[in-house]
């Protein structure tokens, strides 16, 4: 998170470059806060019906595994926002004010290399150009840092969503709000720390130093994200998969059991249900308690009765 402030010198967007070349105040950007608003807004969309209204013959709720929701509203709103911002960016000048002086100083100090006059953009220049890129430390460090950041973003955030949703039973909207509440202070603190490091190590006008700082901070960020795995998650035994329905090793382990054989359950409908005593059922149907066809002895009751016998 602290690397967000070191990225602006390397960004290729006109808006960020304009700020970096003209704003002398080391104020951190707040571009890392957009996911905090996207999570609750997107989850709110997914709780709504995808059409104009819910048909009367469809009896689905947001908690049903077949529920889809109006997922398309989020990408639609984001696309319209990008188009609106694109129109504004089109008003930026071709050459930013002060850019020539900044680049001239970078060439003089050696932070920026002069263009290779031998490369004309032909097919035979692909290998020499690739060699130049691989020898460019700024390019390599920045791309590695971006790769590490993407690894954390696409790996940690969905996992965090599932942990809150499955472990604590929170709905989609509440899970999005919780993630937003967690991200807002953490991202803001990371930006403030990154702003201090930018001034402390004087990397604001040096792309090479900024890229190296970003790379090392991303490595630290990855190890920091892995800290949430230290407590670990207790594994829940699945009835009919890990343990027998009557909690006895003598019985054959299978999803179907006399307590749910009349429910006509489908293994294609995976919706885990906590049955207590550290046991999870594949779906409410396999727990022997579907509303439409209740069984005489629900499967989840077999564990409770077995515990009572052992205690007695």
From TrEMBL:
The keyword DNA-binding does not apply. It is a multi-pass membrane protein. The chain crosses the membrane at residues 70-92, 140-161, 173-198, 210-230. Its main location: membrane. One of its GO terms (cellular component) is plasma membrane. Residues 253-301 form the Kazal-like domain. Residues 1-34 are annotated as: Disordered. One of its GO terms (biological process) is transmembrane transport. Keywords: Cell membrane, Disulfide bond, Membrane, Transmembrane, Transmembrane helix. PROSITE patterns: KAZAL_2. It is found in: Cell membrane. Belongs to the organo anion transporter (TC 2.A.60) family. This is Kazal-like domain-containing protein. The lineage of its organism: Eukaryota, Metazoa, Cnidaria, Anthozoa, Hexacorallia.
